[in-house]
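Batch job 17 of 40 flagged for manual review because the log was empty.
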Amino acid sequence: MGGRSCVIVIAILTVALAYLLYEPFPSAIEQPWPARAYIVIVETTIKIGRYGELLGLGSWGKLCRETQDFLARHFLAPSVPDSITVTDAVFDGVGVRIYRPSTAKNELNGAVVYLHGGGWVWGSINLYEGLTTALATRIGMPVVSVDYRLSPEFTYPIPLDDCEAAVTYFITHAEQYGVDPKRIVVAGDSAGGNLAAAVSLRLNSRKFPIPPIAQVLIYPALQMLELKFSAHLQNTIFIKMPVLCIHVLAYLGVGEDLLPAMLANNHTTAATKAEYASVFDVSILPDKYQSSEYRKPVHEGTPEAVRRVQDKVLDPFVSPLVASDELIRGLPSAYILTAGLDALRDDGYFYAHKLRKQGVDVEHVDYPEGYHPFLMQIDGPFTNRLADRTLDNIAKYVQQKVKSG
């Protein structure tokens, strides 16, 4: 192990010890220690990227990804079982990795295109190999993991363009892979959930002849207009708001000088927030998720932040929650997973409500004890039982949709 690798390991162990000893933790979590350990790794790799950029070592996103890939190779990623055949390919200029189980249920002829999470900045097909392998094994169908370009080097719409290109290429060439093009599901978690929702919207907007049969949105980020909902106020351990906003600004290609305005919810005007009040109807949230701290937005907006950010966050392919009713109608069926301890939780509730109002078939499942990003603990040294149960439920949904298609 080289000197740089030793520095990474020592930094992670130091921060991990401090976090494990002193950070308060929700009592609802079934297995707190694996959760603590995993969150520490995520937060530390982000810190390494941020500090590395200050030292002139490169962009923070690139440094973060390099650190995570190192950890994935040496510590986190499980070996791919012999029952899975792995193939790297290029779909319309976008790198992908295909996981094909030897036990593929040929009578279904379906597949999943998976868009990994990571705040549009980090994450990779390597880091997600445990999850995508486990998903392919459980559904008995191929999973295509998309290696889309990431921010801050590549800002919106490039990551979304890559995802759309990969999805449409696979649909139009599906038969070459033994897959029925009408039985393909697009899925993603966190930022990948945002991209999966946005790809579905884009294909719907241009009347793509063979849309995905379903979209699976796992604790997705679905809007950037309002950042003071109950979930944002209640759940600050797993996604800290400064970290969330830094990732959003990187994706949008906006300077971090606007971070204070975004944290204060001053990146959009009160009039704009009022325009979308019916979409962000907090009364639809369960009583247990209502926050006494929540106040209806009255922030007038900081002029400079509004000028540089507001139009971007009102783009429906950035914030699917603000999409018009016309754009929503005709979307594929949706499986929306929310986690009770996640700062993005309310987005999922609002989107499920919005889709149902326009006649879209929705299955919304909330895990009150879930956090961000617990499904990543499906395999490896920090495995937890909740991830195992959850992936089983997702697999059943996918199989059901593919079979009915």
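Reviewer: the log was empty due to a logging misconfiguration, but the result itself is present. The chain has 14 helices and eight strands. Unflagging and moving on to job 18.
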